[in-house]
Amino acid sequence: MTASRPYVLDPRLADDTHPLAVLPLCEVRLMDDANYPWLVLVPRIAEARELIDLDPDQRRQLTDELDRAARAVRAAFQPYKLNVAALGNLVPQLHVHVIGRNRDDPAWPAPVWGRVAARPYAPEDLVERISRLAPYFEP
After folding, report:
1. For the whole model, what pTM was predicted?
2. Is it the case that residue 64 has pLDDT exceeding 90?
């Protein structure tokens, strides 16, 4: 995809997430909802809204980075299930959610969207969560 503008993180994603890591293609961000271990990967490709807006190499790279994020969530939190989704109805910028789900989480077994209010991280919990995940994204 040839972009006419530079990549900029959508302000709604910036407001709802915390930076965690930068991979070759994506920013990895932690959703500000302590109800679930929840990562958001945002490809740094200007104007990308859909997976088909990425070229074949970028799509392969995204798949590799999603694999890394999903494995990080599984290793760090041992969820019962992983939900991976790219919806973008409210925030059209291409981004992919990786959410660790457990049978006792507040939305189980339904999708997380719109089920219960987000529970923002307390500062010390945010530090703990980022510290727990960061090693999985080191070079």
Report:
1. 0.95
2. yes
